[in-house]
Amino acid sequence: MMMNILMVNFPAEGHVNPTLGIAKAFAERGDNVHYITTEKFKERLEGVGAIVHLHTDLLRKASINHFTPSGLNTFINIHIQTSLDILEITKQLSETINFDFVFYDKFGAGELVRDYLHIPGISSSASFLMPKEEFKNILSSDLFQPDENVERLLDQMMEKFDVLPKNMLQFMNNSGDLNIVYTSRYFQPGNELFGEEYVFIGPSFPQRKTTVHFSLEGLKDKKVLYISMGTVLDHVEQFFNTCIDAFSDFEGKVVIAAGEKSDFTKIKQAPENFIISPYVPQLEVLNQSDVIITHGGMNSVNEAIHYSVPLVVIPHDKDQPMVAQRLTELGAGYRLSKDNINVHFLKDAVNEVLSNSEYKEAIQKIKDSFQACGGPEKAIRVIDSFLKNSI
Predict the structure, then answer these.
(1) Domain 217-371 classified CATH 3.40.50.150?
(2) DSSP characters over 121-177
(3) How far is Cα 231 from Cα 297, in angstroms, rounded to an integer?
(4) How far apart are CA 113 and CA 88, in angstroms?
(5) Which residue in 51, 99, 269, 289 is deepest, having the highest Cβ count within 10 Å?
(6) DSSP states of 227-287 as a string?
(7) How many whole angstroms separate alpha carbon 160 and alpha carbon 174?
(8) CA–CA gap between residue 206 and residue 35 (Å, rounded)
(9) Cα(175)–Cα(125) distance, integer angstroms
(10) Do domains 4-202+373-390 and 217-371 have the same CATH topology?
């Protein structure tokens, strides 16, 4: 029997990309997958067979420091406004479509949509799971005092959709009756804390449809160092300049994914062996890479492991320190402190992971654990049996 599935998410690379495999698996077996997201992800989601419904992208233009009260406030405001937009689209869709369940990310409007539609909710976690207590510490109430705008938006939500978040933490910690996790139990820190309602399926990497022109020709048969600090860090130009100094004599190619926020006028002239581009087809480049320098975002780390590329990790915020910590515990990555970066440290770190085969062996262990997880196919089996039992 064909199902109508609603997918909602938080409009960021690290949240949307992990769901592509599941969206694709549902669509390929004939289910109707309706995915509410922003313009930025339309092409790749349609590429895996989803029907895309767009809301305004408030995140892309925002510059947010989550660790200040005002930054957190901006972030919560974006969450609530985005949730209102998503609820409005949900309301319109539900007038003509009976959804069987809603599949949502830990971040965003998920539980609100579930409560509005009164249907089963299944959550998925793009990163490591965090024990509830630890999560509360991140968002201690003294750090966050809702402003008048938050109050006004919540009143609007109640009035129009008759739903409210339990607390502000919900926007960053939605849970479901069933929770899909895109990693393996082996890689998950403190995995004994998470019971059967957590289903570890490993990451999946369906080919992304992209119109970006990037030539991989120059990377063939060369040693490749790939540098990517994700899509959300501000002011990374200085770091890229340090990389240019550190690796000007690197014997091979150095590829820097500069991100769409970089100011190229602040990046110095690089030698011939560098390729610096605002957007890089990451999977294709990792497939040719020998080492990656990364901020340790879960997406990039999973992709590097998938292509057996040892990592130098420079964590900044969010889940990155936790990811870096786990990589170091398992011997799969070399960690550098972001406050202590210079030419010398960068060179040493890259030489260490390139010359010491233990990193590669540790990566292989995590990769094997991913492959044993069962992927989107396992998720679908578990979701089907869950829905059967919840009717």
Answers:
(1) no
(2) EEEEESS----HHHHHHHT-TTT----HHHHHHHHHHHHHHS---SSGGGGG----S
(3) 10
(4) 10
(5) 289
(6) EE--SS-S--HHHHHHHHHHTTT-SSEEEEE--TT--GGGSPPPPTTEEEES---HHHHHT
(7) 21
(8) 17
(9) 9
(10) yes
Q: Please list the residues that pair with 92 across neighbouring strands.
A: none
In angstroms, the CA 144 to CA 160 distance is 25
- Asked if residues 188 and 181 have their Cβ atoms less than 8 Å apart, the reply is yes
What sign results for the dihedral spanned by CA atoms 43, 84, 167, 152? positive
User: Hey, what are 87's tokens?
Assistant: 């609820």
CA distance 318 to 138: 9
Largest CA distance in the chain: 63
**What one-letter code names the amino acid at 168?**
M
pTM assigned to the model: 0.91
Tokens of 31: 């289910």
Task: For 153, list phi and psi in degrees, rounded to 5.
Answer: -65, -40
pLDDT tens-digit readout, 267-315: 999 999 999 999 899 999 999 999 999 999 999 999 999 999 999 999 9
